[in-house]
Amino acid sequence: MYGWWQEIAGLVLPGECAGCGRPRSVLCEACRAALGGSGAWRVRPDPEPAGLPPVHAAARYEGPVRSALLAHKERGALGLAEPLGAALAGAVRSVAGGPDGGRRGGGGALEAGERPLLLVPVPSARRAVAARGHDAGRRLALGAARALRAGGLPVAVAAVLRQCRAVADQAGLGARQRRANVAGALGVRMGTERLLMREGPVVLVDDLMTTGSSLAEAARAVSIAGGRVLGAAVVAASGVPPPPAEKNRN
Questions:
Q1: pLDDT, tens digit (0-9, with 9 covering 90-100), for 4-59
Q2: Which of the four pLDDT bands, split at 50, 70 and 90, describes residue 184?
Q3: DSSP conformation letters of 118-132
Q4: Type and span of the H or E element at 204
Q5: Which of 217, 226, 207, 210 is nearest to 58 (CA)?
Q6: Nearest to residue 25, comparing CAs of 83, 74, 89, 85?
Q7: Residue 54 in contact with residue 44, Cβ under 8 Å?
Q8: C-alpha to C-alpha distance for 65 and 8, rounded to whole angstroms
Q9: Helix (H), strand (E), coil (C) string for 17-67
Q10: How much is the pTM?
């Protein structure tokens, strides 16, 4: 009920842009462009945790992008699921090999004739989902899937990961502490191993990458269960260089 009421209120009574504060807009055109205007690109945290698959991000975690992600995740601005999902879809396409998901060359790209991609969201702690009143990661995965299908790329969302043990809040932890915090914390839900082995390659999806520890742990859990991890896609990445297009302009 909480999430439903927030979503209706956001549609009927649009307030201000979640990115820059402009009135009467869920997310203005300028902030939408900041989410994916430069195109998704490969990002690497430093240090890079062992087992981290190739990660592609739609934007850097700063300015209006940071504001929009926090508004969606922490303040329940559910109307942002559509533009954030579209940005995530761009990162998924980049993982799959190009704008249309076709093979672009190099290891890991989607092979012609393969089954539809499986988008597997990295789960948040149950207590965090309960406190927020919605599952931000799954909502973004579904938004990305809608955008990808509309563009002709067949995908499915499979929320197969679960937390096997409690983990501490990652905020404020360093890279080494984050790796230790999530090590062995994820597994797959009972009965989903066949799905992972039978269906197409997996793209892990999340809203944000900081150290990459959670994505590396998710890749480990999926791989042990028999899934083939193609890569990971995030809306934004923290502490990474700008995309090549921005570098060329500087």
A1: 444 444 444 456 888 888 876 788 888 888 888 778 999 999 989 999 999 999 99
A2: low
A3: EEEEPPPPHHHHHHH
A4: strand 202-209
A5: 207
A6: 83
A7: no
A8: 23
A9: CCCCCCECCCCCHHHHHHHHCCCCEEECCCCCCCCCCCEEEEEECCHHHHH
A10: 0.83
